[in-house]
Amino acid sequence: MKYFWITLSIVLLFLGVFVWYKYFFVFGEGVKSGYLNYAIKKGYIFKTYEGKIIQEGFGRGKTGGVTSYEFEFSVEDPEVFKKLEMNSGKTFDLHYKEYNGALPWRGNTKYVVDKIVSMK
């Protein structure tokens, strides 16, 4: 019986570490800039805040041409979402955190915007 409890404890410890690493460990963070394409609240069970910015720059498209990149993100803070929602089409610098996995109540993406650095 003693070995059962030791084995169970080890399995639960590894499971806890895996869940923490997958869903709560901040893998990276930074700032993305671009034009806000949309900010919406959606979901069947968990209503989450989602958005997309369009980043412009030189890419591997046509030679010498300007290519656009999309950055889809989730927002946890309702106040940040309201500011984004009211200013669609403007240029934003958004600070985000990147997780290894998405949680249904946190959003549909693994990128979570936590604050607005600047808006133009």
Automatic annotation (TrEMBL):
<keyword id="KW-0472">Membrane</keyword>
<protein>
    <recommendedName>
        <fullName>6-phosphogluconate dehydrogenase</fullName>
    </recommendedName>
</protein>
<keyword id="KW-1133">Transmembrane helix</keyword>
<keyword id="KW-0812">Transmembrane</keyword>
<feature type="transmembrane region" description="Helical">
    <location>
        <begin position="6"/>
        <end position="25"/>
    </location>
</feature>
